[in-house]
């Protein structure tokens, strides 16, 4: 990842009574993550009303980086990941904004950049009227782990 200029953020604690990841067999379920910067501030607002597509894609990428931080913390290394299975992306969007797949592409492209062909995944990208703390995106994911982990 460092060769590709990708650095993981510091991470942040869950905002409620849950954990960021749960391992079940050879699957790692990553709970909802948002676009939190290293200084603790969040990327907020509604896509299509104050947040443009490029900013939303960058927020989705940041969210993916936060998720990868959680994976590394949970497993010790991203090398334990065999493939990305599924991504579920939620976009805080203004009425009439329906290009949610393009927003979540920011996260999906990151996973492709990091894992190559093993980053190809199934996905949903849905629009929401509101998200916690007014964040502009929230993403969950499912990872398949290598057998030796």
UniProtKB/TrEMBL annotation:
<feature type="domain" description="Endoribonuclease L-PSP/chorismate mutase-like">
    <location>
        <begin position="3"/>
        <end position="133"/>
    </location>
</feature>
<dbReference type="Pfam" id="PF14588">
    <property type="entry name" value="YjgF_endoribonc"/>
</dbReference>
<dbReference type="InterPro" id="IPR035959">
    <property type="entry name" value="RutC-like_sf"/>
</dbReference>
<dbReference type="InterPro" id="IPR013813">
    <property type="entry name" value="Endoribo_LPSP/chorism_mut-like"/>
</dbReference>
<protein>
    <recommendedName>
        <fullName>Endoribonuclease L-PSP/chorismate mutase-like domain-containing protein</fullName>
    </recommendedName>
</protein>
